[in-house]
Amino acid sequence: MALRKVDEQRWEQVVAGERDVVQIDACPVCNGAWFDAGELDLLAGEATQIERALDPESRPSKRMCPRGCALMREHDLPGIIRTPVDHCPVCRGIWLDGHERRKLAKSTTREGQEDPKKRLARRGAIWAAQLLVQLPVEVENPVHRTPWVVITILAVLLSAFGLQLLGVIDLSNCAPGVAGMPSGAMLGDLADGASVRDLCLAPVAASLAQQWATMGAAALTQGSWYTLATHWFLHGGWAHVLGNCYFLYIFGDNVETLFGRLRFALFFVAAAIVGGLAEVLLTQNTAAPIVGASGGIAGVMAAYLWCFPRNKLFQVVLFIQLKLPAWVYLFVWAGFQAVMGLVETRNVGVAWFSHLFGFAFGAAVTPLILAMRRREVARTVRVPA
Fold first, then answer.
1. Cβ neighbours of residue 146 under 8 Å, at least 6 residues apart?
2. FRET pair for 252, CA 20 to 30 Å: which of 80, 245, 295, 344?
3. Domain parsing of the chain, residue ranges
4. Starting from the edge strand earliest in sequence, which strands make up the sheet with 22-23, in order?
5. How does pLDDT run across 100-146, given as a tens digit for each residue?
6. Which segments of the chain does DSSP mark as H helices, in order?
7. Distance between CA atoms of residues 163 and 224, nearest Å
8. What's the whole-model pTM score?
9. Distance, CA of 45 to CA of 61 (rounded, Å)
10. For the chain, give me the number of helices (H) and strands (E)?
């Protein structure tokens, strides 16, 4: 990243190779940055002298110097921030994690490069919109490549909802019939002349339970258990589909960038299936079709919590716009799902258990995926000698 000074308080990003610029190495995933000796003081202002403010006492760090010198040392910055920073005693470079960088070198972030008046106007517009929709807004976590899987899933969700509006996909096919069986055709009936318009594509807990009781293990291939893999692209209304699309976009683009496209797609579908299965097994509203991508999106939110816990979200509470760390918002959200799943047990219109178990699946699987990603990076990245 190449930066050029605009005035005493601001730097702007420019094309690498221009004259009179400072170049720093920034991670596009975690927003962390590496500062060679003297660069951090130059960006923060010579009067700050952050490098001289490092506490002489240090502790061993688990992070290797990007220049390959040795393991770095953790130093406190008393009176400036509470978290330690990593300092190389050989080349005297400093590594800042994303949250540390925003505090000490905010001018190197997209938000910090904006004109203060434009930033204030943008916050005002966000506040006005949030008063109406009460949705969180991601503050600073840009991605540097197109999230094609997220865009594809959004297109699938909106296209499927369009087919619902046109009557091509009919949820009434999944209304429970005699003895709890679905009134619509099942997948095996296509060979007997049934059309896609006649299919039941959403699971109904009573129907699946009846099929299992009467057909046993054969219900997995001859019944409508396939609906656990199709219910996630169906929705109950405009607010349902647009809300799910919004949450998928603000959290999914970052997770897809970190996981990789194929791994993210499999992760999303698996979380959706786990969430749908949990709702089928635990809901008391057994006669209503279960629809929505909420289980998969909840899994993505859990992955975001693991990967970017300190990234900030705007949320309006009682007309006040708060800037919350992602971990605060997502922990509150998960707790709300758990409480509502236990309290609202009759005439349920929301798949609380799908949300909760999709989130739990994401929280359990994400550390495994991150370990895989670390091994992949270790095989491809070479530290300079």
1. none
2. 344
3. 2-113, 122-169+234-380
4. 11-14, 2-5, 22-23
5. 766 665 544 455 555 667 767 766 777 777 677 677 877 777 777 88
6. 39-44, 98-104, 110-113, 116-133, 148-166, 205-215, 219-222, 238-259, 261-282, 294-307, 326-343, 352-380
7. 20
8. 0.72
9. 27
10. 12, 12
